[in-house]
Amino acid sequence: MPPSARFTFQPATANDAPALAALHTATASHLTEVHGHGHWSSKTTEKGVLFALRHHDVYVARLGSELVGTLQLTKKKPWAIDTRYFTPCELPLYLINMAIAPAQQRQGIGRRCLEEARRVARAGPANAIRLDAYDSPAGAGGFYASCGWTEVGRASYRDVPLIYYELLL
Q1: Strand, helix or coil at 14?
Q2: What angle (nearest 5°) sits at the alpha carbon of residue 142, between those of residues 77 and 124?
Q3: Intra-chain end-to-end CA distance of the chain, in Å
């Protein structure tokens, strides 16, 4: 069975908290191993995941029963995003905390997660999805651009260089 046939994308539950904390921590550790210590080098706790579940729409991607990816969609603007760079719209969603298991990266899981985020946003309804990515080798800017997202600006927040992307719906 091809991996895409076993792919599922659904809202996370509190039962997913241990696996989500492990996924985020493994992804951060991998980025740190490859690119050195940076803002991406943080450990995620189950308590942090449970907080996110209360305040954001958290989604999980699975291949069969294995949790291989996650992302969050929220109406609340993240602190590091400067809306002056984005196309004005009434109902933006913000994509935050996307992570793909290191062993599953570069196999289309991230692209599928973005497609599902687009589907969720359109049903929401939303006019756009916005995000920021680190403007560094550890950032995923090239990935978002290759998935059809539009770079709308670059800025630094608290000395952290960022690239802003949007997807208009």
Answers
A1: helix
A2: 35
A3: 32
